TrEMBL record:
Domain named Reverse transcriptase: residues: 424-699
Protein name, entry field: Reverse transcriptase domain-containing protein
PROSITE patterns, per database record: RT_POL
Pfam families hit by this protein: RVT_1
Signal peptide residues on this chain, from the entry's feature table: none
InterPro entries: DNA/RNA_pol_sf, Endo/exonu/phosph_ase_sf, RT_dom
Taxonomic source organism: Pleurodeles waltl (Iberian ribbed newt)
C-alpha cells in the first residue's frame, strides 16, 4: 500500500465500512489496514516501534465499561529470533491495560511445530503474559498455521477459518462475547433483620423462653421454634421481587449513588426532549460518573489492602475478587426443574460410585495398631467456649431460624440454652436430627462452563449454624486427643495445625532433592481419587476410629453424627425434595476433615511396607521411590506396593483413577522407568510426563522450577491486567 493506491483501496471497501491504514514507507507496496464497520467505535495508534515487523494497535469500545484492545502485526519472512525475544517487552504495556487483549496477524511462524526453537520461544514468552494461541487449524495453503490469535480472555474464542480465492492465506474468524448478566427477579421471602435492634431482640427472646429439656432432639426443635416465633414478631417474612444475585458492592458510596441518580434524571430529560443540549449534558454526566466510579473503586480497594496487610486470607479474597470478578457469579436461572435435576444427579453420582465397589467387605482390625490410650467421653462445653466458638462462624444455612450474627447478638439470652443442648447431645451420644440436614447450593466450576451440563456444577453444602458450633467444639477435642498422642501419621499434612500444602510440597521436594543429590533417578506418583470425601464408608471409618482409641460415648456420638443424614438442592426460591446420604464425610463440616485423616491413616503403613515414601495432603497422595539404587528391588517394591495400595483403596471404597494418576521421572535417567513395573490389574501404565502439577505447584524432571515460574508470571500478569 502507498498513497497512490488509496483510490483502489477505497473502491474495495464495502458501503458502511471505514479503513485505517499504515503504509510501508521504505518500499513500494505493503503495510497494514484495519477495515471496520462505521457504527463501531474504534481508535488506532502506531506510535511505538516493533523490531522486524509492522503493527497497529487498536481499541474497540463495545460499551462504556468494556474495551477490546489488540495489536495487529505483520512480520515478513526471515530471521525470527530477534522478533521472538522483543515481542514480550513490546506488547506487555498494552496487554496489561485491559483484561480483554488480543494479538493477531500474520507472524510467519509455523506455530503448529512445537519442536521449532523460535516458535517455542515465542509461545513461551507470550504464555508468560497469560496469552494463549487459540487458532487450531492451518491458515495457509501449505498447511501451516501462520495467522494466530493470542488472548488471555475467556471471552475471546476462535471460530473458524475460510478459504479466499485471491490470497494464499485463509480468513480467520474469532468471537468476542462480553455477556452482561441481568439477574432475573424472583419472588423471595426475606426478613428485614437490619431493622431489628439488639435491645428489641433480647427483650423478645427473654419473653416466653422454652423449658429446658435433657432430650437433645426435642431441645433443638424447641430452640428453633422459639427463635422463629421471635422472628415472626420482630421481622415477619416479606415476599417481594428481588434480584437474586444483586448485591451493592462495598465501594458503592452515597456520592456514586447521587451521581447515578443525576445520570438517570438527565436520561429521562433527553428522552422527553431530543435536543443537542440535553444529549451533551447526559454525556458529560455519564463521563463524570464513570470517572468517579473508577476513582472510588481504586480508593476503596487500596484502603482494604492497607487495612489487611498482615491478613493473608483477606488479601487473597480481595485479589481473587479483582482478578476473577465473575468467579462467584452463578449465571443460571433457578427453576424447580433444575433443582430436581441437580438433586438427582448428585445423589446418583455418589450412589453409583459407591455401588461400583461391589458387596461391602468387613474391614480388618489389623490395619492400625490398637491405641493404648482411649477417648471415651467428650468434655462438657462451657458457656464461654460456646460464645467464643459462635463468634468464629460467619455463615448460615437457609434452614436456620435467623442469621449467624443474630445468634451472636443474642448470645446472652440463648447461650445457657445452647450449652444445655450441646452437653445433652454429648452426654446422650445423640446428634440432633434437625441438624443433620444440608441445604445444597451450586456454583459453576468455571464461569465459561455450559450450565446445561450438570457435570459442570459444584455442590456447596450449607449446614445449620448450631450444628457447626458443636462440630467445631468436638473437633477441637478430637484433634487434641489425636495430636497429643501422636495418633495421626506424620506424612499427612491436610487439615492439621502447623501443616499446609506448603509443608507437603517442602517434604516432597526435599525427599526428591536428596535422592537427586545422590545421583539417583526417582519416580513421583501422584494418585488421583474420585470424590474421596463423598465415598467414605461409615462402617470402615468406625472400625478405624476404634483402633485409634475412640470408644464409648465419644464413638457413639460420631456414629449418630454420621447416620440418617439428608440434603436437598436449594436455588432460591426453589428447592428439591430431600435425598438420603448413604456414605461420605459430611461436606463443609468442621469435623469431617479430621475423620477423613483417620480414615486414610492405614495407607501410609502399606506404602512404607514396600519402602515407598508417602506424603499426603487430605486425599492428594504422593508416592516417591528411587529407581536406580537397586532397580530389581525397586521394580518389585513399586509393582507390589501399587497393587496393595489399589487393593486397600478398593476395600476402603475409594475410587483410584489409574488413567488420571500421573508419573514423573526425576533425574538424568528417565529410561530407568519401564511399563512392566506397573501392575496389570490397574490397567495401562501411565505415561511419564515432562511435568506434573502437585498441589498447585508444577514440578519438572530436574526441579528447575522453570514451568512454575512461567505459570506464576502468567498468573501475575493477568492479575495486574485486572488491577
Amino acid at each position: 500500500m502507498n498513497a497512490s493506491s488509496a483510490p483502489d483501496i477505497a473502491i474495495a471497501i464495502p458501503d458502511g465500512y471505514k479503513i485505517t491504514r499504515k503504509d510501508r514507507t521504505n518500499q513500494v507496496g505493503g503495510g497494514i489496514a484495519f477495515i471496520y464497520k462505521s457504527s463501531i467505535n474504534i481508535t488506532t495508534s502506531t506510535e511505538d516501534t516493533l523490531i522486524a515487523a509492522e503493527h497497529m494497535h487498536f481499541q474497540i469500545h463495545t460499551d462504556p465499561r468494556t474495551t477490546l484492545r489488540g495489536t495487529l502485526v505483520y512480520r515478513p519472512p526471515g530471521p525470527s529470533a530477534l522478533f521472538s525475544e522483543s515481542i514480550t517487552d513490546f506488547i506487555s504495556p498494552h496487554a496489561i491495560a485491559s483484561p480483554y487483549y488480543i494479538l493477531l496477524g500474520d507472524l510467519n511462524f509455523h506455530l503448529e511445530q512445537n519442536n521449532d526453537t523460535n516458535t517455542t520461544t515465542l509461545l513461551d514468552n507470550l504464555a508468560n503474559l497469560g496469552l494463549k494461541q487459540l487458532v487450531n487449524t492451518p491458515t495457509h495453503i501449505t498447511g501451516h498455521t501462520l495467522d494466530p490469535i493470542f488472548s488471555a480472555s475467556n471471552h475471546v474464542s476462535f471460530s473458524h477459518s475460510t478459504e479466499i480465492h485471491w490470497t494464499d492465506h485463509r480468513c480467520v474468524h474469532f468471537t468476542f462475547r462480553r455477556k452482561t448478566h441481568h439477574p432475573r427477579t424472583q419472588p423471595i421471602a426475606r426478613r428485614p433483620w437490619n431493622k431489628i435492634s439488639a435491645e428489641q431482640l433480647l427483650s423478645t427472646l427473654n419473653h416466653n423462653q422454652p423449658a429446658i429439656t435433657s432430650d437433645a432432639n426435642n431441645a433443638a426443635l424447641r430452640l428453633t421454634q422459639w427463635v422463629t416465633n421471635c422472628a415472626d414478631n420482630l421481622a415477619p417474612l416479606r415476599r417481594h421481587p428481588s434480584q437474586t444475585n444483586a448485591r451493592k458492592p462495598q465501594w458503592f458510596t452515597d456520592a456514586l449513588k447521587n451521581s447515578k441518580r443525576t445520570c438517570q434524571t438527565l436520561q429521562k430529560t433527553w428522552r422527553k426532549e431530543h435536543t443537542a443540549e440535553n444529549m451533551s449534558a447526559l454525556k458529560n454526566a455519564t463521563r463524570e460518573h464513570h470517572q468517579l466510579t473508577r476513582t472510588t473503586k481504586r480508593a476503596s480497594f487500596k484502603e482494604r489492602l492497607d487495612k489487611n496487610t498482615h491478613n493473608s486470607k483477606e488479601l487473597f479474597n480481595i485479589v481473587n475478587k479483582l482478578s476473577n470478578p465473575n468467579a462467584s457469579s452463578n449465571s443460571i436461572t433457578p427453576s424447580q426443574e433444575l433443582c430436581n435435576s441437580l438433586a438427582t444427579f448428585f445423589h446418583r453420582k455418589i450412589t453409583e460410585l459407591h455401588d461400583s465397589f461391589g458387596p461391602q467387605i468387613p474391614p480388618t482390625t489389623t490395619e492400625l495398631t490398637a491405641s493404648a490410650v482411649t477417648l471415651n467421653t467428650w468434655t462438657p462445653i462451657s458457656a464461654e467456649e460456646t460464645k467464643t466458638t459462635m463468634n468464629t462462624i460467619h455463615s448460615s444455612a437457609p434452614s436456620d431460624p435467623c442469621p449467624y450474627y443474630i445468634f451472636n447478638q443474642a448470645d446472652a439470652s440463648i447461650s445457657p440454652y445452647l450449652q444445655t443442648i450441646f452437653n445433652s447431645s454429648l452426654a446422650s451420644a445423640t446428634f440432633p436430627e434437625s441438624w443433620k440436614h444440608a441445604e445444597v447450593n451450586t456454583l459453576l466450576k468455571k464461569t465459561t462452563a455450559d450450565p446445561n451440563d450438570l457435570k459442570n456444577f459444584r455442590p456447596i453444602s450449607l449446614l445449620p449454624f448450631l450444628a457447626k458450633v458443636i462440630e467445631k467444639t468436638v473437633n477441637k477435642q478430637l484433634t487434641n486427643f489425636l495430636e497429643d498422642n501422636n495418633l495421626l501419621d506424620p506424612s499427612q499434612s491436610g487439615f492439621r495445625a502447623n501443616h499446609s500444602t506448603e509443608t507437603a510440597l517442602l517434604a516432597v521436594t526435599d525427599d526428591i532433592r536428596t535422592l537427586l543429590d545422590n545421583g539417583e533417578t526417582t519416580t513421583l506418583i501422584l494418585l488421583d481419587l474420585s470424590a474421596a470425601f463423598d465415598t467414605v464408608c461409615h462402617r470402615t471409618l468406625i472400625t478405624r476410629l476404634r483402633s485409634t482409641g475412640i470408644l464409648g460415648q465419644a464413638l457413639d456420638w460420631i456414629i449418630s453424627f454420621l447416620s440418617d443424614r439428608s440434603q436437598r438442592v436449594y436455588l432460591p426460591p426453589f428447592s428439591s425434595e430431600p435425598t438420603e446420604i448413604i456414605c461420605g464425610a459430611p461436606q463443609c463440616s468442621s469435623l469431617s476433615p479430621t475423620l477423613f485423616n483417620v480414615y486414610m491413616s492405614p495407607l501410609a503403613n502399606i506404602a512404607r511396607k514396600h519402602n515407598i515414601n508417602i506424603i499426603s495432603y487430605a486425599d492428594d497422595t504422593q508416592l516417591i521411590l528411587s529407581l536406580t539404587k537397586d532397580p530389581a528391588t525397586a521394580k518389585t517394591n513399586l509393582h507390589d506396593g501399587m497393587k496393595d495400595v489399589a487393593e486397600w483403596m478398593k476395600l476402603s471404597r475409594l475410587k483410584l483413577n489409574s488413567d488420571k494418576t500421573e508419573i514423573l521421572i526425576l533425574g538424568n535417567s528417565p529410561s530407568a522407568w519401564a511399563d512392566s513395573w506397573w501392575p496389570t490389574s490397574l490397567g495401562t501404565a501411565p505415561t511419564p510426563s515432562d511435568h506434573a502439577r502437585n498441589l498447585g505447584f508444577i514440578l519438572d524432571p530436574l526441579l528447575t522450577m522453570t514451568k512454575q515460574v512461567n505459570a506464576v508470571s502468567s498468573s501475575c500478569f493477568l492479575t495486574l491486567c485486572m488491577l
